Amino acid sequence: MTLLKAAIIGGGNIADNNHIPALKQLSEQVEIVAVCSRDLNKSRALADKHAIAHAFADTAELYRQCAPDLVVICTPNYLHYPQTMEALEQGCHVFCEKPPALAAQNARDMANLATSKGLTLAYNFQLRQTSEWALLMRCKTDGLLGSIYHIKAHFLRRRGIPGWGYFTNKAMQGGGALMDLGVHVLDLALCALDYPTPDQVLGNTYDFIGKAGGKGLMGSWNPATFEVEDASTAYITFPNKASIMLSASFALNTQSDKDRNLEIFGSKGGVKLFPFTLHTELAGELADVQFPYLEETDIQLKNTAAFLDACQGKPSTVCTGEQGAILQEIIERIYQSAER
Amino acid sequence: MTLLKAAIIGGGNIADNNHIPALKQLSEQVEIVAVCSRDLNKSRALADKHAIAHAFADTAELYRQCAPDLVVICTPNYLHYPQTMEALEQGCHVFCEKPPALAAQNARDMANLATSKGLTLAYNFQLRQTSEWALLMRCKTDGLLGSIYHIKAHFLRRRGIPGWGYFTNKAMQGGGALMDLGVHVLDLALCALDYPTPDQVLGNTYDFIGKAGGKGLMGSWNPATFEVEDASTAYITFPNKASIMLSASFALNTQSDKDRNLEIFGSKGGVKLFPFTLHTELAGELADVQFPYLEETDIQLKNTAAFLDACQGKPSTVCTGEQGAILQEIIERIYQSAER
Amino acid sequence: MTLLKAAIIGGGNIADNNHIPALKQLSEQVEIVAVCSRDLNKSRALADKHAIAHAFADTAELYRQCAPDLVVICTPNYLHYPQTMEALEQGCHVFCEKPPALAAQNARDMANLATSKGLTLAYNFQLRQTSEWALLMRCKTDGLLGSIYHIKAHFLRRRGIPGWGYFTNKAMQGGGALMDLGVHVLDLALCALDYPTPDQVLGNTYDFIGKAGGKGLMGSWNPATFEVEDASTAYITFPNKASIMLSASFALNTQSDKDRNLEIFGSKGGVKLFPFTLHTELAGELADVQFPYLEETDIQLKNTAAFLDACQGKPSTVCTGEQGAILQEIIERIYQSAER
Amino acid sequence: MTLLKAAIIGGGNIADNNHIPALKQLSEQVEIVAVCSRDLNKSRALADKHAIAHAFADTAELYRQCAPDLVVICTPNYLHYPQTMEALEQGCHVFCEKPPALAAQNARDMANLATSKGLTLAYNFQLRQTSEWALLMRCKTDGLLGSIYHIKAHFLRRRGIPGWGYFTNKAMQGGGALMDLGVHVLDLALCALDYPTPDQVLGNTYDFIGKAGGKGLMGSWNPATFEVEDASTAYITFPNKASIMLSASFALNTQSDKDRNLEIFGSKGGVKLFPFTLHTELAGELADVQFPYLEETDIQLKNTAAFLDACQGKPSTVCTGEQGAILQEIIERIYQSAER
Amino acid sequence: MTLLKAAIIGGGNIADNNHIPALKQLSEQVEIVAVCSRDLNKSRALADKHAIAHAFADTAELYRQCAPDLVVICTPNYLHYPQTMEALEQGCHVFCEKPPALAAQNARDMANLATSKGLTLAYNFQLRQTSEWALLMRCKTDGLLGSIYHIKAHFLRRRGIPGWGYFTNKAMQGGGALMDLGVHVLDLALCALDYPTPDQVLGNTYDFIGKAGGKGLMGSWNPATFEVEDASTAYITFPNKASIMLSASFALNTQSDKDRNLEIFGSKGGVKLFPFTLHTELAGELADVQFPYLEETDIQLKNTAAFLDACQGKPSTVCTGEQGAILQEIIERIYQSAER
Amino acid sequence: MTLLKAAIIGGGNIADNNHIPALKQLSEQVEIVAVCSRDLNKSRALADKHAIAHAFADTAELYRQCAPDLVVICTPNYLHYPQTMEALEQGCHVFCEKPPALAAQNARDMANLATSKGLTLAYNFQLRQTSEWALLMRCKTDGLLGSIYHIKAHFLRRRGIPGWGYFTNKAMQGGGALMDLGVHVLDLALCALDYPTPDQVLGNTYDFIGKAGGKGLMGSWNPATFEVEDASTAYITFPNKASIMLSASFALNTQSDKDRNLEIFGSKGGVKLFPFTLHTELAGELADVQFPYLEETDIQLKNTAAFLDACQGKPSTVCTGEQGAILQEIIERIYQSAER
C-alpha cells in the first residue's frame, strides 16, 4: 500500500508531543513529509528532532514542494479557518485541532468546501477515544440506555487559567473556558444525541475571578490582560426535546481543581462517565453497574488512526467537518446569548 | 399579649404532623381555634386529637363562627388560590403551603390582594430554616461570597414517585417533580440572588420512566394514570447576568435515591450547601472550609415562627406573597418553554 | 374462606417470638387454636400471652380435642422426627423447625409419609425469604448466571458457642455447628442447584476450641460438657459435576464474629450474596453489578406464608419434605466421612 | 571456596528474568557456565546478553563440554521429567521449575533417583520466601497457632487466561489453573501441615468460560484451542484429620482480577496470609494482630539461595524432591477425581 | 447477709441518674435509707421518685435518725471536704464524687481521718471500670508493657464549657477544665504508674476563649462571669523518672468536639487506650494488636460495686482516699505552677 | 553583581546531596570555590563530581588559599563550634548544620562573635521553608490565630534508630532523639512564639528500647554501643505564660513509623501543621479550614536562598545565630533536667 504523505502545520507543543508521535506510530499508513511553522528555525528544529525531511515557514511553499495528501493543523484558533480552506483548496485531507474556528459561518464554509471537494475534514476531539466513551456508545447501541433525553456536561477548573500561551487573548482564541474546555464535553454530549441541530440556546459568561486575579494552579495569569470568560454555563435544547446543560470554567469557586464529566440520562439507563457507572434496572431491581477493568488508552493515537480511517473511506469515530459546523454554531449562539 | 387566633384549612398529614404541632409549640403567641376539612368526620377527629375547640367542613362557616386572625392552608395545590383569596377577603393573614398556586396570575392576584388589605401572605418553604441556609445567608452578608453569579440547584429522586396522594394528577397538582420538589430549591436559589425578576427562562419536562413504570422506592405508582412530568430541567437568567440551572425529578436513572443540593458560585467564594462547604481563598491560598457542628433544627417550627413574626410586623425570613408570585411566574414559564 | 386451624408444638423462644407472631399476622388464612409444651404451666402462659384458646402438655390430647389442620413443630431437634410422624398420622400438615431430624432415614420416612398421606411437610429455612435470595433466584431464572457449577457456602462464628439451650448436647441436637448453622447455607446452595441428590461427600469436624474453652461472644460455655463439633468443613459433588464447599463454625480463629455468605459461580455470572453483587460481562466489558435498594423483609412472616401457600396447593418457596430428606442425607454423610 | 558451575536449560522469560539474575547476584557461590535452548540462536542471544560463556541447543552436548555442578530447568512442564532425570544421571543437582512433572509417578521417580544419587533436587516455589510465609512459619514454631487443622487456599484470576505461551495446551502443560496456579498455594498449605501424605482427595475441574471466550485481562485467548480446566476446586484430608480446601482459576466470575491467599486455622490462632493477620486471644480477650512493617523481598533471589544452601548440605526452606512427589500425587488425584 | 444502709447527700443529676440507680441494682448488698439535699422539697421529690424512706435537708438530722453505714456525697466540689469529714466522724464509709476537694491539705486530712477511723473513703473515678482500662491493667500485669516510663493523657473539649451548673464559678468548683476533666485521665495515668508521689510538677492555665465568648457546643456560657481556666497543660515527673504529659480543656481551637485518651509507653509495649491498641513486637516483628470485641459496660454500676467491695474489705479497683490525696496534691501544684 | 565565594566544610551526604546542589541552583548569587574534608581523597572526589575548583583536608589551608565570603559547615555536631568560630574569625558568613553546638555556652559564643564581627551566622532548619510553615506564619500575621499560648510539638519514630553514622555516639553527637530530631520541631515552635527566652524547662530522657535492641526500621543498631536517649519529652514555659510540650524519639512503642507534627493553639484559631488545618470560628460557626493545594517545595533550596538573603542584609526566614543560642540553651536545660 502506498503511504499517505502528511504535513504538519504549526510547530508548538501539540504538534511536537501529540500529532507527530501519533503519526509516527502509524507508519504503515502514513509518512510525515514536512512541518511548517511561521518561525523557520522552530520549524527546522522540529523537523530535525523527528527526522522529517522538509521544514517550511510558508504554507504555499509547502504545498508547492511537497504536495501532501493530508495536513494536520495545530496552530492557534484564529488560523484554523484560513489554513483549512487553503489545504482543502490544495486537495488535502485536513485534521484540524479544536475548536473548528472562531465563527460559525467559517466552520460551515470549511465543511461545505470539504464536501464539495470530496475530502475528509476532521477535528481532533480525542475524548471520543477514551474507553469510557467507547463503552457509552456500545451501551447506547445495545439499548441499555433507551432514549437519551438529558445530558449534564461540565469541564471545570478551580484556578486553571493557563499561565502560558494565548489562552486569555480574545482575538486569537475567540473565547475562554467555553472555547477551550467546554467544546470537548459538548462534542461528546452531541455524539450521544447523534449530533442534532439545536433548537434553542441560552447561556452566560463570567469573568469575575479572571479579572480580579489570585492564586493560580496552572501558573500565574495577568488579570490586567484577561479578556475572555473564566466561566460559562449554557442550556441547549433540540427538536426531539432532548436537552444539554453545559458548564465550563478556567476559574470557579468549586471543590476540585479539575472536574470533567458527563451524566447521560436515558429512559432505560443513565451513565456517569468518569468513573463509568450505569444506573438501570436489572432482574426487577434498581442496579448500579461498574466496569472495573476499563483500559487506559493512547487517545491521540486512536483519534489519529480514526482520522486516517476516514481519509480511506472506512467507518470512523472522528469528529467530521459537518459535526464541527454544528458544534461551532452552538458555541456562537452561547456567546451571543451571553451578550444579550 | 393577646393570642392570635389561628384556623387550619385542610385535614391531611401536613396539617396533622407539621402545622398543628408547630403552632402548639408557639402557644405564647397563637391559639388554634378551628380546623376545617371537606370531610367533617376527618375534621372532628383532627380537632379531638389536638384538643382544638371547633371543627368545620365549610370555610364560610368557619369564618362566621370563629373570625380567626390567621389561617394555615394545607390543602391540595388547586385549592391554594381560592382559599387564600377567601381568607384575605375575610381579613386573615395567610400561611399557605407550597407551591403558591397553579398559575402565575393567581399567585400575582394573591400577592396583590394581601398587599392591598395590609395582610401577611406567606408560603411554607421550610428549607429556608435549615442551619445550612442560615449560614449561607450569613456568609453572603459578611461578604465571604462576593457577587453571586451562578447557582446550580437540584432536587432529584431516582424512583421517588409517591405511591400515595395526588402527586401524579395534573389537574389537582398542576405538575410533577418541578411543582412538588423543584420549587423548594428554586426558592432558595432566588433568595441567594435577592429574589430578582427573571429575564429569560428555558426548560424541558420528561415522563419516560413515569409512563413506563418499574420499581418504586416510595411505594408503587400506576404508569397508566401518570399525567405529570417525572423530571424537569431549566435554565433561568436575570437582568444582572446571574443564572440558575435547575433540575428536579421524581424518577431519573441517577445514583442516589434522593439528592437535594445547591451550589452557589460567587466572585469571592462558592458554597456547596449539603454538607455546607465554602470554597474560597484565605491567607493567600485556596481554602476549603467546613462547619462540622451545624445543628439540626425543627425547620417547620422555625418557619411557622417566622410567619408569626411577619404577621406582627417583625423582620422575617418567611417566603412572602410577592416572592411567591415571582417564583410561580418562573415555574409557569418553564412549563411553557417545555411545551414549545 | 374457612380459616385453617393451627397448633403449636413446643413452647420456647422460637414459638413465642417467631412462629406465633407470624401466624397471627396471617389471620385471614389461619387461626392458632392450641399450644402444646411438656410443661403445662409454660404452655398455658404462652396461650394466655397470645390469646390462644387451648393449652396442652400432651400432643395426643391436643389432637383429640382440637383436630388441627396443621401443626408447627418448634421443639429440640431430637423430637422433630416422632412429633412430625405423629402429626402426619393425625392428618395434619407440618411446618417443622430445622434441621429435619437427627438421622437421614428419619427425614426420608417423614417425607414418604407426607407424600403417601397427601399432606404438606415443610422445614423452616427462612433465609430463602431474604431479598438477596429472591434476587439470586430471579437472576438464575433470567439466565444471568448461565450454568451454576460451584458454590462456596459458609456460616462462621468466631466465638459463638451459645451459652444457653442444648446446643452443645450431642444426644439432643445431633451435632454442632454443621447441624445448627451449616444447614441454613447448605439448603440455599442446594436450591441454587435445583436440589440434586449428591454424588460424593467428604468432610471433617473439629472441636479444639470448644473443648479448650475461652472467651465467648454469645455467653460462656462449659468446655467440660462440650460434646459436638465446633467447626466442620465439607466438599460435596453432584452428578452434573457441580460442587459445593461448605464451612460452618461455632468457634474458629477467624476475623469476623459472624460471617454468613454464599458465592455462586456460573458460566455467565457469579454472585456474592451479602451484599448482593453480580460479577458478569456487559456490553463486552467485565461488569460488577450492585443492587443498593434491596429491602429488608420479615423473613419468618414470608416463610410462614410460603408454608400456607404449600398447604393450599399453591406454588411455594418453602423447603419441602423431599428436599429436607436430601439435605439430611448430606449432613449424615459429612458426619460419617468425618468419623472415617 | 570453589564456585559451583551452573547451567540453565530453557531459554524463555523465566530463565532470562528470574533465574539468571538471581544466580548472578549470588556470584560468590555460583557461576553460570552455559545456557541451553532448543533454538540455538535464542540460546546464544541469551548467553550474550548475560555474558555467559557457552550456548547449546542440545543438553547432551552441554553435559559433555561443561560438566556443570547444577542445572536449572525452566522449560515447559512436559520436559521437567526427562530433563531432570538426565541431569541427575549426569550427577548434577537440579533446580526445576514448578510443577514437578505431568504425572505423579514421574515426580516419584525423580525424587528417588536424586536420593539414590545423593543429589539435591528442588522445585522453585518462591512464595515460600515471602516475608508473610516466613512469619507464618515463625508463628507456628513459637506456638502461636497451636495445632493447625484446616486451611483454605486459593489462587483465583477473574479473566487471567494468559494470551501467550502454552498455558491452554494440555499435552505440554498437563493441566490448567490447578497445574499452573493452584500448585503454589497447595505447596504452602502442605508446608504448614509439615507435608503429610494425603488421606482422601476429592475435586472438580471446569472449563465453561475458557471454552466460551470473552474479555481477557491477561491478553486474549482462543476458546477453540482451550484444552485445560479454567477452574478447579478440591478438598484434601490427612490422617491426622487436618484438611485443605483448594481453589484455583484462570477464569471465574468473581470480584478480583487476582486473588491469592491462604487462611490457616489452628487451635490457638488463625492467620490470613495477605495481608498477614493473626486472630487469637491475648490477655484474656480476642485479639487481631497486624504486622505493618513486613518487608517486600526478592523472593526468587531468596529461593535460589535456599537451593544453593541445600546443594551445600545446609538447612534450607526450598521445596524438596520428596515434597514435590507428594504434591504431584495430590494434583493427579484431583484430576482423577474430577474425571470420575 | 445484713444489708448495708446507704444515704445520699446531694440531690442533683448525678445522684438521680448515676448513684441511686447503681445502688438499687446492688440491692442484695445495700439499701438506700435516706437522701439529703439543702432544699427539702427537692430531697423529698427524689426520695419519692426512687421509693426511698427518708428525706432530709440537714445532714445532722440524717445521721441522728438513720445512722447509715455509708454515705454517697454528690454535692458541688466545695462541700466534699466538710461533708466527708462529718460522715467519717459519724462512722460512715464515704463514696465521694470527684475531685476529692478544693485543697490538697483537705484531701490529705480526709484520707488520714478515714485511716484512723478504719473506714473506707473512695472517690468516683468511673473510667477505671471501662473494659479498656481493665485490659490495660491486665496487659501490665501480664508483662506485655514492660516498664512504663511515659504517659500522655488528655481530655479536651473544643467548645464544651457547660451552659448549666457551677462549672465556671471558681469559689464553688476550685477550678475549670483541669479540676473537672483533667482529674479523670490523671487518675488513670497515676494508676498505670502504681500511684507514685510526684517529683516535679510544672503547668499552665489559660482562659482566652472562656473570657472572649463565642459558639458553645454544650450550651451557651457567659464570658463575663467566667472565672476558671478553659484549658490547662502540665508535666509531672516521678522519682523513678517516669513522666506524665497532661492536657485538659473546656475550650480549645482543636479538631474534635471531645477527645479523651491516654497513650501509655512502656519498654515492651505501648498502648493507645481508645480504641485500645497495643504496639509491640511479636514473633520478631513489629506488631499492632487490636481487640475488636471489648464490651461496653455500665461503669457507674461497676464502680459502685467496687466501692462496696472496699467497704467489705475485699480487693477493689476503686480510687482510695490515699490516692485521692496524691491526686489532689498534683492538681494543686499545677495551679500553683501556673500562677508563678 | 559579584558572586559570593562559598566553601563547603564537611564531605558527607548532606554536603553532597543538599548544600552543594542548592548552592549550584543559586549560581547567579554564589560560586562554590572549595570543599574541605578531613579525608583529602573524599574531598577531591566531591570537588570533581561537582566541578568545584579546590579541595582541601585542612580548613586553615582553605582560608589561606581561597578567602571565601561564606562557608557551609556540614560536619558532625561536635565540630560545629570550633569550625564556626574559625570561619567567623576568618571573616566569613557561616551557614551551619543543626544543632548549633553541643553546649549552650558554645552557641552563645558563636552568636556573639558573629554579631561583633558583623557577619551572618545561620543554622539549617529547613522545615521553616515548607509551604505549611509559610502558611502558618501568614495566618499568624493576618491575625487568624490571635495570641498563641500553647504548642504541642513532636518528632517521633517507632524504630528509627539509624543503622549508620554516629547517631548513637554521645561524645560526637551530644545526644540522641532530642538533639537530632526534636530540635527541628522545637525551632518551629519557638518561631511561632517569636523566639522568646524560656522561663522554666522540665524534661526527661529514656533509653529502654535503644539499650534492649530489636527490630529496626532504619537499619539495625547495636544496643551494646547505644549511648544516647532513644526518647525525650519536655515542657517549656515562657514569661508570657505560653508553653511548649515537646516529644522526640528514635524508638517508641507508638503507632506510626514516623510522625512529625505541631499543633499551635491560639486564642482565635488553632493549627495542625501536617496536613495544614485551621480550627477557628467563621460567620459565627465553628469552622475547619483546609488548604488542599499547598505546594511541595525544595526546602533546602529555599533555606539556602534565605541564608544568602541574610548575608546580603535582606529580610530572611533563616534561623539566626541568636535564635540558635536560645534553642541550644533549651536543649541543654532539658538534658540537665533529665539528669536531676
Automatic annotation (TrEMBL), chains A, B, C, D, E, F:
Domain Gfo/Idh/MocA-like oxidoreductase N-terminal: 5-125
Gene Ontology MF annotations: nucleotide binding
GFO/IDH/MocA-like oxidoreductase domain span: 142-271
Pfam families assigned to the protein according to its UniProt record, in alphabetical order: GFO_IDH_MocA (PF01408), GFO_IDH_MocA_C3 (PF22725)
UniProt cross-references to PANTHER family, sorted A to Z: D-GLUCOSIDE 3-DEHYDROGENASE (PTHR43249:SF1), UDP-N-ACETYL-2-AMINO-2-DEOXY-D-GLUCURONATE OXIDASE (PTHR43249)
Protein name: Gfo/Idh/MocA family oxidoreductase
Protein's organism: Spirosoma aureum
